[in-house]
Design goal:
Glycerol uptake facilitator protein, 0% strand
Length: 232
Amino acid sequence: MSFLFLKDWAGDWRAYVAEFLGTFVFVFIVCGTTLANLFYVDIGILGVALASGLVYTAMLLATINSSGGYLNPAVTLALWLVQKIKGHLAFFYIFAQLLASFAAAGLLLLIFGSSAKEFSLGGPVLAAGISQQTAVVVEAILSAIIVFTVFATIVDKKNSTGFGPLAIGLVVAGGSIFAASITGAAFNPARALGPLVISGSYESIVVWIIGPLAGSLFGIVYEFLFLRKVKK
């Protein structure tokens, strides 16, 4: 009986594996592309942004039926805030996402060597002259746009067309083009924490925690404006 209770409380472990794998691939490809741009070939901001959008779309499609395809603690938090996911399940999802971030960063360190630590293992970096306060605002706004797109195209069944993952991937790509040279374009704590912690780049790490989590609050706004039924 106790084992059955634990299973019901913790949920389906395969969903957490899906979140781990999807987030792992996203962090590995995006940070790896960033490092390849620095070490080997001039891919440029557009190339990294395109890689970000394409791999995020692919991983959403790969995991959406298994776990919901959250792949981002900010999105997971937004869904929990409007009670679309239970608190303990949100905890396990976020744990899987962050664990994937560290696993991807560790593998990148193995591939690119210790010299990659100088470039934060491909993690986000603030541009010169950009304050942490400004960076938090930029990350919060773009994270809110991602949350808005997730809610509008997937959570809100009235608007669901099946193109949600593509729309979200396009937002990630477009946001990356805009913010890559300003904040490093994370919009996702999992995109930042693993690479930054393993490389020892702690100076501005709060930007990529506070910014995306502040952006997750837009889930409440969307729920209030569009998902609540108006009393007649």
